[in-house]
Amino acid sequence: MCIASAISVLMILICGMAAYGAYKLHPAWIIPFFCYQIFDFALNTLVAISVVVYPNTIQDYLQQLPDNFPYKEEIAALSNICLALIVLIFIGSILFFK
């Protein structure tokens, strides 16, 4: 919880700096936001590549979910290729909207 709070505060700070830099026409204030965007894009791309290379890991992640997770059995019944395609579409849509 502490790490999630720290990341949220940093994201608010970075977005605030970007908004302030855009408003006051100070391009140096926008640089941390672009650095975060590049890091986020690289991380999402690495996750997408790992899903393509190791599609069986999705089943491993599903097995680690708690038993009361909704639709866990239905999702686990899907084939590895179908799960990989769903994850890739989800990651692709996130990258597209960013």
TrEMBL record:
Tree of life domain: Eukaryota
The protein's name in its UniProt record: Lysosomal-associated transmembrane protein 4B-like
Gene Ontology CC annotations of this record: endomembrane system; lysosomal membrane
Keyword Membrane included in the entry's annotation: yes
Membrane topology value: Multi-pass membrane protein
Presence of the UniProt keyword Glycoprotein in the record: no
UniProt-annotated location(s): Endomembrane system
Membrane-spanning residues: 6-23, 30-55, 75-97
Keywords: Membrane, Transmembrane, Transmembrane helix
The organism's taxonomic lineage, starting at the top: Eukaryota, Metazoa, Chordata, Craniata, Vertebrata
Main location: membrane
Gene responsible for this protein: LOC104945890
